[in-house]
Amino acid sequence: MRELRYCEAISEAIVQCMAEDPSIFVAGEGVDDPVGTHGTTKEATRLFGRSRVLDLPNSENACAGVAVGAAAQGMRPLVVYTRQDFMFLAMDAVVNLAAKWRYMYGNKGGVPVVTRAVVGRGWGQGATHSQSLHSVFGHFPGLYVATPASPADAKGLLVQALRLDTPTVLVENRGLYQLTGPVPEEAVPIPFGRGRIARHGSDVTVVAASLMVHEAERAADLLAGQGIGVEVIDIRSIRPLDETIVCESVARTGRLVVADTSWARYGFSAEVAAVVAENLPGALRKPVRRLTLPDCPAPVSMPLEQAFHPNAGRIVEACLDLLDGGEVELSAFDDVASGVVGPY
Amino acid sequence: MTSTTHRGLLREMVRIRCVEEMLADLYRDEREIRTPTHFSIGQEATAVGVCSATRKDDLVYTGHRCHAPYLAKGGDLKRMVSELYGKQDGCAGGRGGSMHLVDLAAGFGGATAILAEGISVAVGAAWALAMRSTSRVALTFFGDGAAEEGTFHESLNLAAVRKIPVVFVCENNNYSIHSPLAARQPAGTTIWQRAQGYGMPAEYVDGNDVLAVHRAAAAAVEWCRAGNGPYLLELRTYRWREHVGPNWDRGIGYRTEAEVDSWIDRCPIRRATAALRAEEPAVDELVDTWRAEFDAEIGAAVAHAKASPFPPVEDLLDGAYEDALSSQPGRR
């Protein structure tokens, strides 16, 4: 299969879906500019023009509501946020309207607002430009929330979102945009709520989201050299959550590490741990280990930033700890996202 | 839609008044309507005057004080009453209550309950109509309090820059719950003039004069339909009863008895009745006849709602997602 970069896979999904469905339009701050949201909206602008790729004023609150209103009248807005942190300004429309619309108006139709939200992490983006809000949105019934890790999933999950009638938040870590991988040429949807086994292994399960899938795979590669089998589960969507794939793996391995790009409290890692506790109370041979952000906002200074984000090395340590496996010489790992450079 | 003769406008106002007075009595006496209900008693002319200037396929979105615009737009009375009683055949299946009325067949796109959020939804709906090159327009009702929300300003700005066919209808009743406008917005400023700041036409109208409201709304709708962009109407009116609930709130201290009385003297129904007396000397008898008709209609709607079943508890999750599988097992 031909290979695409993650950003190209997104662009292709948008263009193919817009060609087949005239009700889709792209909207966001600067989506039609020369940069085109990391190159993901340039081709759509070129092919469909500014009547379907709409630059919006800096009004996240109203624009999120506008997307709901347009969706209620049969359109399919694809709303883009170049920093997910700005979505806090859009919370009312996303949570109080989009998520609840179908239910609170008597199940006569949903509002298919599809949101792409970019996580800015890296290059000292700091406290308010680095956050991944998948756990926040994952809390609310009525939304789908996905964290595509691979180019194929970036395309397939977006295609699926643009064909459903459920409002969806797709979290894109910008550290993934330049990663390459095989991507089907056709617009093939990938269903929400189905995780993917990224690496098979029988000793310990690592459940990961987004960027952490790649860190977990690197950890698995390293530990494979020690004869340790790490099963890496790319959860792909936070809501709905594939409980089955998690439980079946943990039932085999008896050990669980959850690697996330957000905080531990009330978050994705807590949910995965709870699912295992509820469904497999006797399966764990060791307590769950959660690798999450430390309980502080994201710092800017380079050494602090490096210490802030969990990475492959910490996953290796956690797995070894669960296996009483001693130590492994950790070569200086760069984070998967370390290729992100400024000025932006 | 309402007949646009003065007589037709009066008749529709009387109908809405009858509905709300009967529902308020039932709400207070029976305690079977278990949903926060915001009555429009005293401000019927805004809803009737504006909605009578729309086509059936135009869309209306509102805030929480929604019964009057819902009915004036042609929303189904039985389904509204059933919704208030939480019944399965309510307009939102008993999931929405008084603040989430909806009747798409009548062009009532939905009431919303967080202050001002319906404004942006109406802009989006109007934009969708324009994108598909229809001649339909959207309208949004909101109060003076909503004009303090950021999304009000953001929505006006976006609608103006994109020439979106939406009529912003501000029902200024001078109170946000118990807080007077003077405590919330700067002296010497008005809501309609803010719209002018965003480059759209705007008009201040006596919101208790149903004919004046109708004429202004007709001009605004025509402006939008012709592709000129948005328009704002500020309609000065007054809520007689408490912010939420069926009762009078005379004497609790945030407004004077004299103020309430002065606005009851400016009752939009009494005013329209008086205006019609010259050409229809028997208008008072006519209103009495209508009242009797409407009381029968409403009584039947209430009886219907009471006889209707509640939604089955097994259906609690229905509508959370488009397919039942997405609601997670064990997560009820």
UniProtKB/TrEMBL annotation, chain A:
Q: What is this protein called?
A: Pyruvate dehydrogenase E1 component beta subunit
Under Gene Ontology molecular function, one entry of this record is: pyruvate dehydrogenase (acetyl-transferring) activity
Q: In what residue span(s) does the Transketolase-like pyrimidine-binding domain sit?
A: 4-179
Under the heading Pfam families, the entry gives: Transket_pyr, Transketolase_C
Keywords associated with the record: Oxidoreductase, Pyruvate, Thiamine pyrophosphate
Q: Which cofactor does it need?
A: thiamine diphosphate
Enzyme Commission number(s) from the entry: 1.2.4.1
From TrEMBL, chain B:
Residues forming coiled coils: none
Q: Which InterPro entries match?
A: DH_E1 (IPR001017), PDH_E1_Alpha_Subunit (IPR050642), THDP-binding (IPR029061)
Q: Which cofactor does it need?
A: thiamine diphosphate
Source organism phylogeny: Bacteria, Bacillati, Actinomycetota, Actinomycetes, Pseudonocardiales
User: Taking every annotated instance into account, which residue ranges of this chain make up the domain Dehydrogenase E1 component?
Assistant: 12-313
Source species: Kutzneria viridogrisea
Q: Which Pfam families match?
A: E1_dh
Q: Spell out the SUPFAM superfamilies in the cross-references.
A: Thiamin diphosphate-binding fold (THDP-binding)
Query: Which GO molecular function annotations are given, in alphabetical order?
Result: pyruvate dehydrogenase (acetyl-transferring) activity
Name this protein carries in UniProt:
Pyruvate dehydrogenase E1 component alpha subunit
Q: Which UniProt keywords apply?
A: Oxidoreductase, Pyruvate, Thiamine pyrophosphate
Q: Cite the PANTHER family for this sequence.
A: PYRUVATE DEHYDROGENASE E1 COMPONENT SUBUNIT ALPHA (PTHR11516:SF60), PYRUVATE DEHYDROGENASE E1 COMPONENT, ALPHA SUBUNIT BACTERIAL AND ORGANELLAR (PTHR11516)
EC number, as in UniProt: 1.2.4.1
Oxidoreductase recorded as keyword: yes
